[in-house]
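Quick one before lunch.
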Amino acid sequence: MSSLRIVSVHRELVADPSVHWHVSAIGIGAHPDRIDRWLTLPDALDAIDGGDHFYTIGDTSKMLARVHRSVCPLCLHHVIGSTSENVPDNNLHNLPSK
Ligand SMILES: [Zn+2]
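Model of the zinc ion complex:
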């Protein structure tokens, strides 16, 4: 089990039932400027199920958000999302795509 910081994401457009975005891959790195490796969404879900913890840290706010397994409210697919409650810059969906 490990605790891994997500510093970048890839998004993909899903068209059904309406157009929306999913995070399709996550970039893991100890520092925001360097991605050590990429995990696809299925790999990330497997890792979460295996006990790994993922989180983001806001660039400006420096606040941590936990990333968890969730179900997309639109298409009901299994996805990952963050518990960004107070600030937008640690929201998984707002991370830069590199
Ligand atoms: Zn969806």
